Every structure is written in structure tokens, then in C-alpha cells.
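Problem: given the chain below (215 residues), write out its structure.
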Amino acid sequence: MILIELFAPAGVLDQAQREEAGKRLIDALMATGDTHAEAVMDSARALTQVLVHEPAAWITGDRPRTDPADPPRYLIRVTAPAAWRKDMSGHAIDRLTQALANTEAAAGRDPGRLRDQPHALVQVVGIAEGSLGMYGRPMGSLDLIRHMTAPHRDAVAHLATDGLPPGTVIDPVCGMTVDLGATDLTLEVDGTVHGFCNGQCQRIFADEHGIPLSA
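Solution.
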């Protein structure tokens, strides 16, 4: 469950540009460059929302924006479970800035300034556990991952593993390819070693199979 808010000065983006910018921001955030299963990414995308705000007043400390020809400033705020914030911040800031630069280019403005000037601020905000809800009840980060990975976990027994690089396995929770030689996050069930991309995927698998994990 991720919320992306784009703040832009009034009149800078028309309705079509606002909608296109929203699509670009979602596409950018979902394109993490990893190998999560397609079904997991589709489920994550369905829980991602974009709101575009145009404040009645936009004031910066260095000067007011009085000339319409002045390049607009932007603020992007990403809200996600606090447990995800640290891992997602790097790629989120980079990719969302690029998505906004693409929007600037499409509007005929200089996209490079967003990399050269502090004209686009990106905040990644972590929400405390239990402060997000769905289905009328609080949803922790593990609950959300269980929801997003359910389609993959239901189908994992039927996935083909031929062609995987030697020493790698598919994370049975999220579908990422995991190098067994580079992780300590493994569990063995019925003689099969499973590897996990992070501790939350390992926890979900352990809970489903009644495997105790050390604190």
C-alpha cells in the first residue's frame, strides 16, 4: 500500500499532463529492476495510488514564483510502511525524479534541471506499523506482503525452475531470484533449500510452514 503525492504549482500541468505524470510515477516506482514475480508486481501496482495537488499558494524561501516563465518547483511525497522505507528510498528518489523529468520534457521544459538544481524534492515517509488499514482492519507490513504475494505463493508449486543460474533459487514468497551463496536467509523443508530476498519473505514462509525462527 503506497501513496505517491505530487505537488505542483497551479496551472503548470493540465489535466492530461497530470494523469500522464501519475502513470509515469507508478510505472517508475514499480520498475525496481529486480526479479519479483509478475503477479506480485501486478498486485503491488494495484495498491499504489497517486494524488496530484495544486496548492493555492506555492512559496519557496529563496524567492516567490512571480514570473510564469520561471521553471516550476515540485515536491513528491511517497508514503509506505516504515519497514520498507530504507530499502526503497534509493531507487524511489532516483526513479521518481526521472519520471518527473520525463513529464517536464513532454511539457517542453528542461528536464535536466531536476538533476542539476534542487527543483524537485522527494520525501519517502514511513508509516508506523498498524497505522495502515485495508478490509476495515489494520494491516502491518507483513500483512501487506502476504496480500501482494498471494498470487505467486498460490502458483509457486507449478513454476518451472529450469534455466536458473547455478546456485540460485526462486524466493517462494515474492518470486525473486536469490543467490544462495550470498544470503543467510534460507530455510530447508523436506530436503529442499529455499532462499529469500529479505527477512519478511522468510518470516511469511516460516509462518506458513510452522517453522520457528530465532529472534
